[in-house]
Specification:
The structure is a homodimer. Chain A is an alpha+beta fold. The first copy, chain A, has three domains: 269 residues, Bira Bifunctional Protein, Domain 2 (BirA Bifunctional Protein, domain 2, 2-Layer Sandwich); 129 residues, YbaK/aminoacyl-tRNA synthetase-associated domain (YbaK protein, Alpha-Beta Complex); 97 residues, Rossmann fold (3-Layer(aba) Sandwich). Helix content of chain A is 25%, strand content 29%. In chain A, the strands form eight sheets. In chain A, strands 3, 7, 8, 9, 10, 11, 12, 21 and 24 form a nine-stranded mixed sheet that branches. In chain A, strands 16-14-15-17-20 form a five-stranded mixed sheet. In chain A, a hairpin with a 5-residue loop joins strand 5 and strand 6. Chain A is globular and about 95 Å long. In chain A, 47% of the residues are buried. At the A-B interface, strand 1, strand 2, helix 2, strand 3 and strand 4 of A face strand 1, strand 2, helix 2, strand 3 and strand 4 of B.
Chain lengths: 568, 568
C-alpha cells in the first residue's frame, strides 16, 4: 500500500481526550477516531489489526470444533424476561421500542439469544455437544466509558456458547476453550494469564479471566509468590486471621466532635484501626444495608453484591443516611440501627470492645460487642485482599497485586439459562434434561489496546508481528531517481512474495517519515537512501528493539525473511 | 466438516412464515432462524455463504483502491441534524436516549458518519480522492419486514463512500464502483443488471441500481426491447403522448349514486377511462395534495414525492377526505377544492371535457377544463410506465417490465452532505471547497436470498460454486465397513487438497441424506455405496443440472477437479 493513498491521519501531539498510552497511540497512529463517548470509527490501519485478531481467533475457535454463527444485535425483551435478566442489567443495557411499540434491547451479550435459538431445535442428546461462536458488535451503555476501546460502549467481541448434556461435558468444553484462549493470546503475541474470576451478572459456577498485565489495567489481580494461585481481587481471598478482640467492657458513648474517618479516630482516641469497625452504608436494590469490616480493611463491593444477590449495589448518598438509616454520615454504626440489614466481614466474628459510630452527630460508641449490643445477619468474606497477605491455596507464598486488562472471560454457566428459558434435551431414556451451558468471551477491540499497552515505547507502537497492520515499511529518502526506482522495485518484489508492505511515497521530510513509521509500529523498516544504495546496502530497523543493521541489496529478500523470522 | 457435528437443523416442510422461495429454503436448509420480525440468527451454513460473499466483495473493493473501515452502529443525533435527515427518515430510523439522555439512532446508512469523520481531517486537495468502505450491520425499522432477509430490519451491507475534489473525479469514482459491482455480482454467480434509479432519501444526481431478475422481486424494472435503456419503474419514463381532449363544453354536474371507481364510471357513463381524470388524495408531510392522472394511468408515488420534495407521502385516510380536503372519498375532484395543492400528470396538460368527482356524495362533474374550472400548480411526470409503451431513449423499442431484486445501489451524492455538514477541503489556490461525494451499497444478506431466487429447483438450493457453503458433499450409503473407510479416505484426501468438503456421516437413511444434500445445494455430490465400490466407481452428481455420472475411483481427484471447473 502506498502511504500517499492510505487514509492515515497521524497526529503529532497527544490528544487531550486520552489518558492511557494505548488510547493516545490509537488516536495518534490514525487507527481510529472518536464518534461519541465510548464509540469509535476504525480507520484502515486500525481495522486491519482488528481483522488480524479476528482471523487468529477464528482459526483457534474452528480448530476447537466451535462453529461460527451470527446472532442479532437488536434483541426482543421476551427472551431477557424469560432469563430474568431484563431488569438485572439496569442502565447498562440500551432499551427501546420499535415502531409497533414492541420492546427491544441492544445485546450486551448473547446467552439469551443462543438459549432461545436451541430451545426449540436441539431435541436429543445426539445433537450435543455443540459450541456456537460469533464475532459481533456488542453495546453496553457504560456509566463511565474511558481509556478508548478499553472500556467502550460499542465494541467487538468474540463470544462462544457451549451446550452439553452434563457437567462432565461442560468441563471438557470449558477446558477446550481455556486452551484455545491461551493459543489465541499467544499467537497474537500477548502475554496473558488466566486468573480465577467472579461470575458477576452471568451467574454460574467456575469462571476464569484472561488478563494482560499492564499498569493501565482496570482490574487488580492477586498472584501467589509461591504457587500458581491467581485471582481477580474482586474474588481473591487470603489467609488473613480473625482479629483478636480481647477487651470486653460496658458500652460507652464518647464525644468525638467532627471526627468522622478511621484515621481521625485513630489519632483522637489513640486506638489502632485494627480495633475499630468500619461501617459502610450501602443501598442494595433500594434497600439499606450496613457492611462492617475491620478499620484496617476495605469493603469489597463485589463480594457484598454476591452475598446479597443484589442487582445493583451502591454507596448511600448523604441524604439517605437520615432517610434510610436514621443516622448521620460520618457517625453511622450498627448499634440501635433498626430496619437495616447488617452484614460483617468474617474477620470480625469475635468482635468486642470495638469503636463504632453512635448514629448521632459528633458521637461514637466504645466497647461495642456483637451479639450483645447488636445483631449481625451473617459473618462472611467481605474484604479485599492486600499485597503481602498469605496465599489461601498454598499457605506459604505471599500475594502480589498487579494491574491487568481483562481480554477474555470464560464461565461455566451450568443450567441457569436452560432452566429459566426451558432449553431441554431428551436423554437416552427419553427424559427431558436441561442443557448444561458455558459462555466464553474475548474482547477483540480491547485486545488491540492491550497489545499496545504491552508493546510501546516513547516513539509509538511496537506491534507483535502477527497482528501488525503491515509487516514491512519501506522509506525512500529524498527525490533521487535511483532511490525512487529501487524503492519501487523492492516494494513490488516483496509484495509479490506475499509480504504486506507499506511504502512511504509521500513528499514529506525524512524526519516525518521516520517518526510516522515508528508511531504506527510496523515491525520491520527498510530505509533506502542514495548513499546506502551506492554501498549496495539498505538500512533495516527492527521496531521491537529499535536495532538497526545493514542488509545487502543483492540478498535483500532472503535477509528480510531471516530478520522477520526472529521478530516476536 | 462432519454433518454429525454440524449445527444444521434442516426442515422437511415449508415453514408457514415464509412466502418466497429463498425465505423458505434458507429456513429449510438450516441457514438461519427468525429471532423477531425481520431479524435473523445466521447458523453455520448460512454464515459461511455470507462470509464468502463478503470475501468476494472485499477483494473487488480493495482492487478498486477503496479502503476498509468500520463505522459505528450507534450514532449521535447531532450529525443527522447537521445533514437535515434526523426527521427525514421518520420511523424507519430507530432512535433512543442513552443513560445520560443524549439522543442516538441505529445507523440505517453511514453518509453522516463518513462526512463527520472527514470534515475535520481531510484538509487539502492532496488528501483526495478517497474511497472508504465497510461491511457493517444496518438497522431499518421497516413498516413491513418480509421475504426473510430480502427486506429485513437488521441486515448486513457493504457501503462505500467516495470523496473527490470535483464532479469529474466523482464520475471516475462512480464508474470504478459501477465496474467493481459488475465484477462482484458476476463472481458470485449472479446475473445482475444495472438500471437507472431514483435517488430517494439519499438525494444527489445520478443513481443506478443493480437488479437480480426474479419473480419474487419487490421492484419493477422497465427494459427497452431495442436499446440498452433500463430503469426502475419508480423513475422510468416512456414516449406516451399527451391525451387528446377534443371536447369543450359547459361544466355539468351529474348524479352518480354509489359510483366511485373509474371502472364503475366507465360503465355507468359509457365514457372510456382515457377521458376521465383519476384524482388521488394524498398527504405529504401532513399537507393535503390532490394528484391528477389519466383514468387509464397509475399515480407513481415516488415521482410525486420527488416533485413535492416530501419526507413522507401517503394516501389520505377515509376521515381525512372531510378534514383536510372538505370532500368525500370516491367523489373527490379538483373543482372548488380550497387550500389543497393540485398537481397533474403532464399527459393531462390539455385537459378539458373531463369527468371528475364533484366533492359531494354521489355526484360527479362532466366537461371539466383545467384553467377554467380549477388551477393546477404544475403539470409534471407523475405516472408509472406500463409494458408495451415506447422507449423514451431510442423511441423505437417497446418497454418490457420485469420483477427484480435490488442487490446494489450507487449514488452520485454531489455536495449535499459536505455542504450541510461543512466538509470542505482547500483547493490548489487555498480556497475552501465542498468535498464531492458518492455513496455505494450492496445488500450482503439480501444477495444471499437473490442468489437462491435465481438458483433453485423443487429439491432445494443450487448454489453457484463461488458462494456455496461447501464445494463437495460425500454421501456414504449403508454401514458397510468398506464404504465407511473409503468415504473417510476420500474425505481426508479432498480436504488435504484444499477442497471444502462435507461428509454425511449421520446414521440416517439414504433417502434423508439424498434429500438434505439437494436441499442445502452443495455443487458436487459424491455417493459412495458398496456396489459402486465393487466396480471401482463413485457416483457424482452436479447439483446445477442434477446430472449424474460415474467417475473412476483411481482417478477421483483429477475427475473432481475437472467436473468442478465446469460448474458455474
Amino acid at each position: 500500500m502506498r502511504m500517499s493513498k492510505l487514509y492515515l491521519p497521524t497526529l503529532k501531539e497527544d490528544p487531550a481526550e486520552a489518558e492511557v498510552i494505548s488510547h493516545k497511540l490509537m488516536l495518534r497512529a490514525g487507527m481510529m477516531r472518536k464518534h461519541s463517548s465510548g464509540i469509535y470509527s476504525y480507520l484502515p490501519l486500525g481495522y486491519r489489526v482488528i481483522k488480524k485478531i479476528e482471523k487468529i481467533t477464528r482459526k483457534h475457535m474452528d480448530n476447537s470444533e466451535a462453529q461460527e454463527v451470527l446472532l442479532p444485535i437488536m434483541q426482543t425483551s421476551e427472551i431477557w424476561k424469560d432469563s430474568k435478566r431484563w431488569d438485572k442489567f439496569g442502565p447498562l443495557m440500551i432499551k427501546f421500542n420499535d415502531r409497533k411499540s414492541r420492546e427491544y434491547c441492544l445485546g450486551p451479550t448473547h446467552e439469551e439469544v443462543v438459549t432461545d435459538l436451541v430451545r426449540d431445535e436441539v431435541r436429543s442428546y445426539k445433537d450435543l455437544p455443540l459450541n456456537l461462536y460469533q464475532i459481533q458488535t456488542k453495546v453496553r451503555d457504560e456509566i463511565r466509558p474511558r481509556f478508548g476501546v478499553m472500556r467502550g460502549r460499542e465494541f467487538i467481541m468474540k463470544d462462544a456458547y457451549s451446550l452439553d448434556t452434563d457437567y462432565q461435558g461442560l468441563d471438557q468444553s470449558y477446558q477446550a476453550m481455556y486452551d484455545a484462549y491461551e493459543r489465541i493470546f499467544a499467537e497474537c503475541g500477548l502475554e496473558a494469564v488466566a486468573v480465577e474470576a467472579d461470575t458477576g451478572a452471568m451467574g454460574g459456577k467456575d469462571s476464569h479471566e484472561f488478563m494482560v498485565l499492564a499498569d493501565s489495567g482496570e482490574d487488580e489481580i492477586a498472584f501467589c509468590s509461591h504457587c500458581d494461585y491467581a485471582a481477580n481481587v474482586e474474588r481473591a481471598t487470603s489467609k488473613k486471621t480473625d482479629i483478636d478482640f480481647e477487651v470486653e467492657a460496658e458500652l460507652e458513648k464518647i464525644h468525638t466532635p467532627e471526627i468522622k474517618t478511621i484515621s481521625e479516630l485513630e489519632e483522637y482516641l489513640e486506638v489502632p484501626a485494627a480495633k475499630m469497625i468500619k461501617a459502610v452504608a450501602m443501598v442494595a436494590d433500594g434497600e439499606a444495608v450496613l457492611a462492617l469490616v475491620s478499620g484496617e480493611d476495605e469493603l469489597n463491593e463485589i463480594k457484598l453484591t454476591n452475598y446479597l444477590q443484589a442487582n445493583e449495589l451502591r454507596a448511600a448518598e448523604e441524604e439517605e443516611f437520615a432517610e434510610l438509616f436514621n443516622s448521620v454520615a460520618g457517625f453511622i454504626g450498627p448499634v440501635n440501627l433498626n430496619n437495616v440489614r447488617i452484614v460483617a466481614d468474617q474477620r470480625l466474628k469475635n468482635m468486642s470492645g470495638a469503636v463504632v459510630g453512635a448514629n448521632e452527630k459528633d458521637y461514637h460508641l466504645k466497647q461495642v460487642k456483637a451479639g450483645r449490643d447488636f445483631e449481625v445477619e451473617a459473618f462472611t468474606d467481605l474484604r479485599s485482599v492486600r499485597g503481602g497477605e498469605r496465599c489461601p491455596k498454598c499457605d506459604q507464598g505471599k500475594l502480589n497485586i498487579k494491574d491487568g486488562i481483562e481480554v477474555g472471560h470464560i464461565f461455566k454457566l451450568g443450567t441457569k439459562y436452560s432452566e429459566n428459558m426451558g432449553a431441554n434435551y431428551l436423554d437416552e431414556n427419553g427424559k427431558a434434561q436441561p442443557i448444561v451451558m458455558g459462555s466464553y468471551g474475548i474482547g477483540i477491540t480491547r485486545l488491540v489496546a492491550a497489545a499496545i499497552e504491552q508493546n510501546n515505547d516513547q516513539y509509538g507502537i511496537k506491534w507483535p508481528k502477527a497482528i501488525a497492520p503491515y509487516q514491512i515499511i519501506i522509506l525512500p529518502l529524498g527525490n533521487d531517481d535511483q532511490v525512487q526506482e529501487k524503492s519501487e522495485e523492492i516494494y513490488q518484489n516483496l509484495k509479490a512474495q506475499g509480504w504486506e508492505v507499506l511504502i512511504d511515497d509521500r513528499s514529506e521530510r525524512a524526519g516525518v517519515k521516520f517518526n510516522d513509521s515508528e508511531l504506527i509500529g510496523i515491525p520491520l523498516r527498510l530505509t533506502i537512501g542514495s548513499r546506502s544504495l551506492e554501498n549496495g546496502v539498505v538500512e533495516a530497523m527492527i521496531r521491537e528493539n529499535n536495532k538497526k543493521l545493514e542488509i545487502e541489496l543483492d540478498n535483500l529478500e532472503k535477509e528480510v525473511e531471516k530478520l522477520f523470522a526472529d521478530i516476536s
